[in-house]
Amino acid sequence: MFYELNMFITKAQGFNPAWQNKIIKHTTYISLLLLIWTTAIFAQSHPNLILTTEGVKAIKSGGDAPLFEQAVADAKSEIAYSLAEGIKVPIPKDAGGGYTHEQHKRNYKYMNLAGNLYQITGEKMYAKYVKNMLTEYAAIYKDLPLHPVDKSYSRGKLFWQCLNEANWLVYTSQAYDAVYDCLSKKERKNFEENLFRPVADFLSVENPRFFNRVHNHSTWGNAAVGMMGLAMNDEELINRALYGLPIKEGANLEKDNDGGFIYEKGTAKAGFLAQIDHAFSPDGYYTEGPYYQRYAMTPFMLFALSLHHNKPDLKIFEYRDGILLKGVYALLYQTNQAGEFFPINDAMKGMSLATGAVISAVNIAYGLNEDPQLLSVAKLQNKVLLDHSGYAVARGLHEGKAQPFFKKSVELRDGAKGDEGALGILRTLKGEEEIAVLFKYAAQGLGHGHFDKLSYSMYDGNTEVLQDYGSARWVNIDHKAGGRYLKENKTWAKQTVAHNTLVVDGKSHFGGKYDIATTHHSDPYFFDIKNANVQIISAKESNAYEDTDMQRTLILCNGDDFSSPILIDVLAAFSENEHQYDLPFHYAEHFMRSNFELNTNLPKVMGEKHGYQHLYQEANGNIDSDNLQFTWFNENKLYSITAQAAAGDEAIIARIGANDPNFNLRRDALLIHRKNKAKNVLFLSVIEAHGKYSPVTELPENPYSQIKSVKVILHNKKYTIFTIKDIHNTQHTFMFSNQDNNAESIHKVEHEGVVYEWTGVVTRASSSQ
Amino acid sequence: MFYELNMFITKAQGFNPAWQNKIIKHTTYISLLLLIWTTAIFAQSHPNLILTTEGVKAIKSGGDAPLFEQAVADAKSEIAYSLAEGIKVPIPKDAGGGYTHEQHKRNYKYMNLAGNLYQITGEKMYAKYVKNMLTEYAAIYKDLPLHPVDKSYSRGKLFWQCLNEANWLVYTSQAYDAVYDCLSKKERKNFEENLFRPVADFLSVENPRFFNRVHNHSTWGNAAVGMMGLAMNDEELINRALYGLPIKEGANLEKDNDGGFIYEKGTAKAGFLAQIDHAFSPDGYYTEGPYYQRYAMTPFMLFALSLHHNKPDLKIFEYRDGILLKGVYALLYQTNQAGEFFPINDAMKGMSLATGAVISAVNIAYGLNEDPQLLSVAKLQNKVLLDHSGYAVARGLHEGKAQPFFKKSVELRDGAKGDEGALGILRTLKGEEEIAVLFKYAAQGLGHGHFDKLSYSMYDGNTEVLQDYGSARWVNIDHKAGGRYLKENKTWAKQTVAHNTLVVDGKSHFGGKYDIATTHHSDPYFFDIKNANVQIISAKESNAYEDTDMQRTLILCNGDDFSSPILIDVLAAFSENEHQYDLPFHYAEHFMRSNFELNTNLPKVMGEKHGYQHLYQEANGNIDSDNLQFTWFNENKLYSITAQAAAGDEAIIARIGANDPNFNLRRDALLIHRKNKAKNVLFLSVIEAHGKYSPVTELPENPYSQIKSVKVILHNKKYTIFTIKDIHNTQHTFMFSNQDNNAESIHKVEHEGVVYEWTGVVTRASSSQ
């Protein structure tokens, strides 16, 4: 017993064994020892990771909270079968989607639920379930070889990759914390020595390439080791998690299986605090984009909350000016009206605020700041955590405290210092539907980034007006390469032509080379949302192509002047050499009409690389008027593009699907506005969500564009002046300064006898004829 | 005044003017006159068409009915702008979708609403609005030439086709009835002489080809003339509506602009009662299918209700064993779980129970039978009529009387006598989702029919598992041929290969010739839904191809034996000559995997006619095993086909879109199972809705088929015996008698040493290995 106590203290306080030996030898120090022991016991009060003793008390004694009660009932029901059927801890064999993979995932999820249920209900059977499962894992773990599926840069033992093993530990640490008081010392010793410490060591010292970089995989690794360190009260593990392993200098820049460099960033630092320092921009933007941020928020928030409970002096939620909570809000802003994340980079479409990771993030954030707007998000999620924060959310909702979550137009800077471009989001209302425009002028976004400088996507409510393809993948669906990224993700989805941005000479930005792309970013030029009816973003890109500079300005107009909001898209390219300029509009479906004659052809493959090898040209047209107009129909809504055209311009209607032997790509349609053999070009396009249709009344509303014509008056590196005429003959003139973004500057341009004069970057004038 | 009274009686009773003159001359007859006058007044009590004096009283004095109050508020709001802005009765100019067309549509709709509002609220301004609008119409109507758009077999004057003109009169008659008491005799005379009678005559005696056949156009014509006859108390018009014009013998079989023959059927009879006799089968099925039935139900129900109020002795709702109400229920059965009509024939997808026509039908039916199940439909519709039946529905809902509407599996016979084939619907539940199978072995369905003998479509909840393409059209959308049928409707949508049924030698049924197709129908062979877990339909077709007979049997299995319902599709063709047999499966999207090697190719056009000219082959595979298995993904669900294959079988993956210069067709995908150079063939296929996927949890459920193999044991004209083995190695053997559908017959077949013996048409045996 004394030995155990001794070991216990050793583990608990990370004492130097030599010093400890001295203590044991000097019985005069017994009183000190007891004091320390008491402190240790106090410090180790369980639960104190995500659940806390006080939190559990509050839940048990608090008022009604139907959503929380539902969460308890759901959890009971979810694990009921496993509880009755018995523990299953199979020898690891399958990759993602396969049986053993899914079973081990279920196991950590169920252990976590059972641990929470034990705390909330007091029913011992739940604790026993966790204990039994841990016993089985402890019996096999140390002897497990590396996982037989060899497809990861860092294979796990239970899973094919360390990442899943870290997930396992994050949840298992919570389960252990929750049932800690039910376990005998012997059991704890068994678990800690034969399971937890080995897993934690495996994920860190044995896999530094997994653990020791700035990357979402490592965040999971850090949180896993740190949370288990907190649960075991193992300072060494906690410190390893917070500060990383000692950095190896001059490590090779190998690539991981997400395509990112190992040791790409953060070679100077590692560990959880370094993740926080590097992963987020000062605005809470995560350089890989919201799909990955959502996933990464879980270890950030869970480990942070655990630290908040156990190491309050660290003030983790105040770290970097409260960056973690900023990250939660940044994540919420990066969604369409349905709450689905904008699918930039390697994102799967359909992932939304309703996902578990965001439920955790929103619940934990609400537990900290009690922002009633977060309750609206929780209402949409309709599910809460099984902890005190989840209870608080459920109570808040039950008490009617929710306020609408206001998603503002916002510019989220990229880069740890906020100086690596940005993601700009403009929003305005069309009746009850929100028109949202997501403009990407950020950094590459690490290994999951796409070659999509100055690309944007546009939403009309939940409908994609101009889509971002997202990634070519079916996560967890075995039929499609075991649920992993498909090769078309690289050959199509990442390529520039798969996005709504300029392709020069049929080549992707940076030649499609990640190593180059990742060293550059676009530059914000102007962001102004003061006038809600004329919101503007402008950004520049000068590295994507060697001899071509680009500037794109998006102006979202609304208000009485327009029957529905219009997006003005002004894309300029400057080059000293002649190029072919392709501007794709990914409208997906379904062509309705064009103002140019369509020459349809048998589908022909458009190129050999940079994504063009996946495109079929289905039709083209030579634009012989000053404007190109194109109307399409999607989800019972009608959209139009009206663009300025010049002699020689070509419109190509294309469809994705060429060179796709396994039918991995969606057969979506796109329009390409092509300008051949040009040096400096300006694409001036107006995109509108003007109409809708009801298949029940069979009546269309506003099936035609409200734009009669668009016209460039003057365009050079310094200024762009253009007009938009609507069907009522009202003419809107926009004057824009391309090189001076000082709000006080006075600009004066004379052109064809007309003097244009304005102050600041942009102005708009309207006149009726 | 006396003159007016006199005229009034003349009009009202259809008196012989000569006789009337005598009355006037003989003052002794004054008392008689007063008696008659009183009767006339009584007979003409207004409103009495759709609204009735009693109904209005009941509405005004009845209890709360929120949905009705909402309908009143909606109606007020809908016409508020027009009420303030003033009447607009433009000179007719545009076709469907254009301004004058839509304005005249709005006008009759608003007049009807205003009339109802006047009755319900008592506010005179609504009556005045109707009066003013009628005044404008009366001022121009007689002098209007035929509509300038010459695209209909029966041009209207206000509209490009008489059909819309009849719509106008159906609603205007209600408006007139509602405001009748507010009008001076002079006003009535003006309207009746200069507007109503001229429109009624125009639609009937001046357009017999429109008025005098058995066709939904004529039903509108009959109802229009009849309802205005009732409103004006004009027996001659009423009789004309009920019994038609005298039949012209030997009229030419010209085609109307829907492709149907003028005077196709009903040359022996015409008028409303003939419509009822011919339009519906004894089960209430309407041979053109639910999309057209929905449209046709409005004149049937409105005129019938008007007759019910005015000519109760006619007992119109008891006519033909209560066929009109049977029609309402038949219509409700022909919907998927979302309440959308099965899009057979020239149907637009998305048309649903929520449409105004079905609201009318359901409200009127409820007003007559008070079936609480109808209230569930009304709840889904969330809108009620502005009459007493609508009020009754709203009251019923408010009082919580609604009961679930049970959509049973049902066979709806086709043909006026019920002997022209049928439409069979099988339904079963998969959790909360309904698997529905619609099997079409009916008559051609008049001019809107498709060449789709023995075709079926399948639904999983609201998702199409195997689709019916529907029609190639965007109703009312000007961009697409003015909203009319597109030429691809004929060249693609109607063709056999556009359906899930057998195509022999690349030719459509009946060679795609309507004149031949319309003289034939398929034959029901067996329909049995007694066992809810083994529901069966079998039907035969012997006319679609000259030398090939077909039989198709669909078996929908559910229950503990299956993890999800399976549909067994047994399609046999018998011929003495060799043919190419193509069986398309219109899965739409997205290919996941096949058990055969895919050879993808550049899209190549599959043929020159019968719809093949619109198909691109994208890949093919030669089946070298006994089974073909194919899995796809649609709306986050996973589906599979497992089919028996024989040496030489080919699988073709195709996509719609070839020879479609205006992008009128959807680019949906299909699988074609092809058997070359065969005489007798059997296609045995199992279709399953086995899996689903959540983009939020990113977890698939049951991504793989539960079927291991299917195998034909024995097949000839007399018997078909086959087995289906599932992944648990349970083998299900089905024995089917193809020629003897007597439930008492005992069948005994010996094959390869095994004796198969059963009673009745079909039996199933299961064994585990």
Give helix % range of chain A. Answer: 25-40%
Beta content of chain A: 25-35%
How far the N terminus sits from the C terminus of chain A, by CA atoms, comes to 96 Å
Number of strands of chain A: 26
User: Low-confidence segments of chain A, ≥5 residues, pLDDT <50?
Assistant: 1-21, 27-43
Report the C-alpha radius of gyration of chain A, rounded: 29 Å
Quaternary arrangement of the chains shown? homodimer
Biggest interchain interface, per-side counts: A-B, 53 and 53 residues
Summing up helix and strand content along with how strands pair, one would put the structural category of chain A as alpha+beta
Largest sheet of chain A: 9 strands, antiparallel
Number of helices of chain A: 20
**Please, what is the average pLDDT of chain A?**
92
Shape of chain A: elongated
Annotation keywords:
alpha+beta, 6-stranded antiparallel beta sheet, 20 helices, 26 strands, homodimer
Structure overview:
Two copies of one chain form a homodimer. By secondary structure, chain A is α+β, with helices and mostly antiparallel strands. Helices cover 34% and strands 25% of the residues of chain A. Chain A has 20 helices and 26 strands. In chain A, the strands form five sheets. In chain A, strands 7, 8, 9, 10, 12, 15, 16, 19 and 20 form a nine-stranded antiparallel sheet that branches. In chain A, strand 7 and strand 8 (534-545) form a beta hairpin. In chain A, helix 5 (66-85) crosses helix 6 (99-121), helix 6 packs parallel to helix 8 and helix 14 (290-310) runs antiparallel to helix 15 (319-333). Residues 1-21 and 27-43 of chain A have low confidence and may be disordered. At the A-B interface, strand 12, strand 13 and strand 14 of A face strand 12, strand 13 and strand 14 of B.
